[in-house]
Amino acid sequence: MLLDPKQAQRPRRLERFSALTRQAPGSRFATQVLAANVDTLLIVTACNQEFNVGRIERYLALAAEAQTRPVLVLTKADLAPGIATAPGPGPAPGNAPVQGPQSFIEQARTLGEHLQIECLDARDPHQLEPIRKLCGPGQTVAALGSSGVGKSTLINGLTGLSGEAGQQVGEVRGQDNKGKHTTSSRSLHPLPAGGVLVDLPGIRELQLTEAGDGIDDTFAEITALIADCRFTNCRHTNEPGCAIAAALAAGKLNKRRWENYRKLQGEQKVYDQAKADRTKRDGQRSTSKKTQRRLDKEDQH
Length: 301
Ligand SMILES: Nc1nc2c(ncn2[C@@H]2O[C@H](COP(=O)(O)OP(=O)(O)OP(=O)(O)O)[C@@H](O)[C@H]2O)c(=O)[nH]1
Ligand SMILES: [Mg+2]
Ligand SMILES: [Zn+2]
What we know:
The protein is of the alpha/beta class. It is built from 9 helices and 8 strands. It has 2 domains: 16-83 and 100-199, Rossmann fold (3-Layer(aba) Sandwich), CATH 3.40.50; 212-300, Ribonucleotide Reductase Protein R1, domain 1. β3, α2 (53-65) and β4 form a beta-alpha-beta unit. α2 crosses α6 (212-218). The radius of gyration is 24 Å and the shape is globular. Bound molecules: guanosine-5'-triphosphate, magnesium ion and zinc ion.
C-alpha cells in the first residue's frame, strides 16, 4: 500500500485489507496469519516430484479467500524430467509425449485458463522479468510454497542481493528434492522500484481456515454445476437430478477436481464445527465467570 506522504511521518497502524491465514499447525481452530496486505501471492512449486495439482488448488483457495491475486511460479524448469536432449532418435512427430517443463505447465493449466503461470529457473535473474513486473510501487508480493522450491532464490533474484546480504538458500536432499527448511522466519524486502517482497518459511501443511468461499471460487465450474442440482440440499451422491453426477457420467467434470473439492469442503466443515464448539465453550465459560462475579458481589453485602 502507498502511504500518503503527509501521513508517513506519524507512525500508526493501518487496518489490514487482507490476510492469508491457515490453521496453526497442531491446532484445529487457532488461526495463524501467514502474511497480511498481500497484493500478489506467488505460489511457488518446482518441476519435480514436489509438483502436485491438488496442493496448488489448496493455495489457490487460500489466495481466493484473501482476495489476493495468485501467480503460479514453476521453478527448476532447467531440471524438469526430459529436458536434457538425449542422443538418438526422438519420439515420432505428432506422437511426442509431453516432456520437460511443458508437461508441468499443461497440468497447471487445468487449474484455470486465466491463471498466470511462470515457468523458470529461479537462479537466473533474466527469467524473473514477468515477476518483477508484479512488484511495482505500492505492491506487496509474497512467496509461499514447500521447503526447497526456491522461494528465497526468487527473492534474491528480485532484490539483486546474494551471499550475506541476501536471503540464505539451502541445498535440497538428494533422494527426493525436499528442502531442509532453510528459511525459518518471515521477512520483508523493499525493492528500489517501490514494491515489497515477503519471504516465508517453507510450508509443511496448509490447513485452510474460513475458506469456504475461496474454495467455491477456485472450483467455479463445480459451484456452477451445484446450482443446477434439482434439490438445493443435494448431497451429490445418488439424488435424482444431480448435476454433478450427470457431469461426471458425461466426462464433463474432472473427477480429481471434484474429489479435491469435496476433500477441502469436508475439512472446512470440520474446522467450522471445531470453531463453533470452541466459541460455545468460551461463551459458557464467560457466562459462568459473570455468574461468579455476581455471586462474589452478593457475598460482600
Ligand atoms: N536448478 C535450479 N535450482 C534451483 C532453482 N530454484 C532454487 N534452486 C535451488 O534449490 C535450493 C533451495 O532453494 P531455496 O531458495 O533455499 O528454497 P526455499 O523455497 O527458500 O526453501 P526454504 O527456505 O527451506 O523454505 C537451492 O540449492 C537453490 O539454489 C531453479 O530454478 N533451478
Ligand atoms: Mg527460503
Ligand atoms: Zn447434486
